[in-house]
Specification:
Helix 2 (about 50-60) links the parallel strand 3 and strand 4 (about 60-65). Strands 1-5-4-3-2 form a five-stranded mixed β-sheet, sandwiched between helices. With about 120 residues, the protein is α/β, with parallel strands linked by helices. The protein has four helices and five strands.
């Protein structure tokens, strides 16, 4: 989807390039790939908004708070401002699940989640 379509889907305000194509979403600026939107979330030690400029060096867009004081996006990139990036990220995920008809499985418990997840990924 384009940054403009994404902004409309999460009731956000778009700054910058409306026509960039968003291929994925990431909440960790260290794992962002070309074509991803970075979702700036607050963490225990850092606020994700501190890493928006770093994320935009690789990704095409960032989903940020409306009140965040950030520089305008670089040429060919976009900022999508929303009231709460966490809520907007969930709205986006719900939209994708609804449109694609994905089945979702959850792995819970105290022990063995990572191993079980890895086994399930290998099977799928």
């Amino acid at each position: 989807m384009t940054a403009d379509e994404l902004a409309r889907a999460v009731d956000g305000t778009l700054e910058g390039a409306a026509d960039v194509i968003v291929l994925g979403a990431e909440v960790d600026s260290r794992r962002i790939a070309a074509g991803d939107i970075y979702v700036a979330l607050p963490g225990e030690r850092h606020d994700g908004h501190e890493f928006v400029s770093v994320a935009l060096a690789t990704g095409v867009a960032a989903l940020v708070r409306k009140d965040a004081e950030l520089a305008p996006p670089p040429s060919g990139k976009a900022l999508i401002r929303v009231g709460d990036p966490f809520v907007a990220h969930h709205l986006l995920a719900a939209r994708e699940r609804q449109q694609r008809g994905w089945r979702v499985a959850a792995v819970t418990g105290s022990v063995g989640k990572t191993t079980t997840k890895d086994f399930l990924a290998a099977l799928v």
